[in-house]
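Reviewers of the previous submission asked for a worked example of the structure-prediction workflow described in the proposal, so we include one complete record here. The input consisted solely of the amino acid sequence. No template or homolog information was supplied to the procedure at any stage.
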Amino acid sequence: MGKTVKHTRFAWVIAFVAAMALAMPTVASANEVTKWNEIAVNTVNAQPPVSSAPPAASIFVAMVHGAIYGAVNAVDRHGQPYLVVRSFPKASADAAAATAAFSVLDKLFPAQHATLQAAYDDSLSGIPEGDARETGIAVGTLAADAMLAEGHDGRVVIGCTFGSGLPGVWQPLAGPTGAPLCDPSPWVANAKPFVLKSPSQFRTAGPLPLTSAAYAADVNEVKEIGSLNSTTRTVFQSHAAAYWQSSPTANYNAIARRFVDQSSLDLSDSARLFAMLNLTAADALINTWNDKYHYTFWRPITAIRHPDDGNPATVTDAGWTPYFDPTRVPLPGETGPALITPPYPDHSSGATAYASASMAALTTFFGTDEMTFYATSSRFPGEQRTFSRFSDLTNELLEARIWAGIHFRTADVQAAKLGRDVERYISTHLFAAAH
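From that input alone, the workflow returned the following structure tokens.
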């Protein structure tokens, strides 16, 4: 009862501060956690697709924040031990956080050493010399070494070939040169989870039977509203579809950084917030990618164009084109590369799982779904979309994938449930003891 009351009071205060922050300018008050969060996100997103594609990026940022949380938690024991079993109450938490983040990033991306070293030196320069700093460095190193030894980084380059062409089977699409477009990070499907017991722990129910009425409804919905030349998709829906084709790693972590600034969260709470957010997202994406290659279900572009799915309620359209197509005319103010059907199977939806898991983690941290915040998109620089509930963001993104013509509704709905299930498991098994 005491914990519930405390979370409720905390959530009310945070919600009030966040609402006020939308009405007036704020001055960022970065701590070592938010500083290294921004460095981690920028470093990862600057890498080639094998490391920067959303599922891969989620893993690398989670490695950084898992290490930070393990180190800070060893100094200021506010939750059950993670990575570091011993407690070091006299250590500098700032030094521990900076060292953990730097050590993980430096090992993962050695080509960025000079830039990372400069940032790390800057962090240490603001911490008084002495035993506390040295012990903090040692704790951060322990956490980073433990994280790196976990073996979450499974980067490999795997080629792809065209599928069998059978009904229901994913068919890689040809790129500009005629070669198939390939998933840049299929290795995520078998990556080691951070908290889950296996990459397939929350296997979804799977795609609908091709001959079912429900499948026909999915096909006909996306065929109509997700078409390049749809007459039913609204201007808002078209804009939203493009808006959410932006880096979720950058977007959701930026939302969390703004909450830290607006709410003046201390280092301990910041470490827990970003660990909850990123460990949850990474495990949800691992589970989702395992789902994709378990079911290898076709995308709408292939299904609608296919000569036969055995369902009398669907009609083949060999010339159907999704809204996300290179021939699409960009919207006013839109930037970025041409939008296409993603080069990996449909079920379940990675973007929806990412959003669902992330928003569920924020809901658990603040103890409420009702929070006022805004999100941004690299495709529409300067534009802010404001939400009054975390779940509203997930729900809009879920619909946007259908409006884009790249997902069936079932893939999105089941992915949203997967994200929530993963978050519930992680918050219960790792963060339940945190106050």
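The beta strands are 373-375, 385-387. We consider this example representative of the routine output the project will generate in years two and three.
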